[in-house]
Amino acid sequence: xxxxxxxxxxxxxxxxxxxxxxxxxxxxxxxxxxxxxxxxxxxxxxxxxxxxxxxxxxxxxxxxxxxxxxxxxxxxxxxxxxxxxxxxxxxxxxxxxxxxxxxxxxxxxxxxxxxxxxxxxxxxxxxxxxxxxxxxxxxxxxxxxxxxxxxxxxxxxxxxxxxxxxxxxxxxxxxxxxxxxxxxxxxxxxxxxxxxxxxxxxxxxxxxxxxxxxxxxxxxxxxxxxxxxxxxxxxxxxxxxxxxxxxxxxxxxxxxxxxxxxxxxxxxxxxxxxxxxxxxxxxxxxxxxxxxxxxxxxxxxxxxxxxxxxxxxxxxxxxxxxxxxxxxxxxxxxxxxxxxxxxxxxxxxxxxxxxxxxxxxxxxxxxxxxxxxxxxxxxxxxxxxxxxxxxxxxxxxxxxxxxxxxxxxxxxxxxxxxxxxxxxxxxxxxxxxxxxxxxxxxxxxxxxxxxxxxxxxxxxxxxxxxxxxxx
Length: 471
Description:
Elements: H1 20-47, H2 50-59, H3 90-93, E1 106-108, E2 119-121, E3 158-160, H4 174-184, H5 192-199, H6 210-220, E4 224-228, H7 233-241, E5 246-252, E6 260-270, E7 275-279, E8 292-295, H8 296-303, E9 310-314, H9 319-326, H10 332-349, H11 354-366, H12 370-380, H13 395-402, H14 406-417, H15 425-437, H16 441-454, H17 459-470
Antiparallel strand pairs: 1-2, 3-6, 4-9, 5-6, 5-9, 6-7, 7-8
């Protein structure tokens, strides 16, 4: 306390309140900060798309706790509404004989004036041709007999392919990244962005199918590709030993994630160690850069979750040699029969194996045997299958549609839309098919248009919308 000049009376210092404008300014600043923070959380949670949310999380990891809850996460596929409506039972399915396969078909929208029976088309996705890539010359290939089977061709105990350019995938981009890595073996110089612009123009698109990948290669790259199901480890080794890169679809559970579909490029194998060597767009190329060593049994365990489907890349002049190596797998129908037989053997050995029953259904769909396929899919859904299954494999849609089980199909679609399937064009394509058959033309048109908003190159939706418009 200070004294006054005569040292008799103390000064009393009165604190003046801050100006009103300052109080308003400070209060407004705090309010703006609070509202801005709440607004940021709202934008992050409810406005940003998944890819944008992930980029925020990469920079600010704690934001992950504010992600909206996915109501379908962690749940298995819903059980069917009308299980085993067919005269067949699951036990019958394990014993019925194989028949001559029919060509793979795609159900397309029938004109509204026709009956409910489905018009089948052999149409495959069509992409606009582009200038071909200039590729390095290849050696002259040996003359071989068409009757030679892969099992009769001796292969070395180890083989490895060199010359790949490793590409680490961007978010949600394993398909374009992996196909680009495979094409780099042939001198392809484009990046994963180019492949993605064709294969998945919407970067949120959850899946690129093997047929889309092969169409991209065949129409855009100057290289050739085929896809088959029902492969074996020995077949893959035979192909690699003869200089053919192979891409497989697998089930994948990286740390911190639920089950996902994934593509992996196989570049070598070693029978002494019992491993394949893989370039993986997510995991890398291993400690020495020669590929991640993955045991044969682990490879097959993950591969079977996609019915052992594989893509082979080759030059046009190698086609005859590749057909010889493939043997019966050169015929898609025979490949589907192989896949069916393998899945049946696995279901007999383990009757509660959901993947085995699902693979049976997928093989039967490829053979055009829809009634049997629905029995297999019904049985598969009695057991636990990953909740993301319908992001990647659409056989149940085709099977249920072709036998008229529209309620079951729509129940699967509803479940898929509830867990991320709104970014899968096939979800809306099959929804549109059901709407069209039920005479709900406006709803069908909306569904097909939504499929094309996700992927404008989706030929099946283009064709279905064209038929709808012309009707």
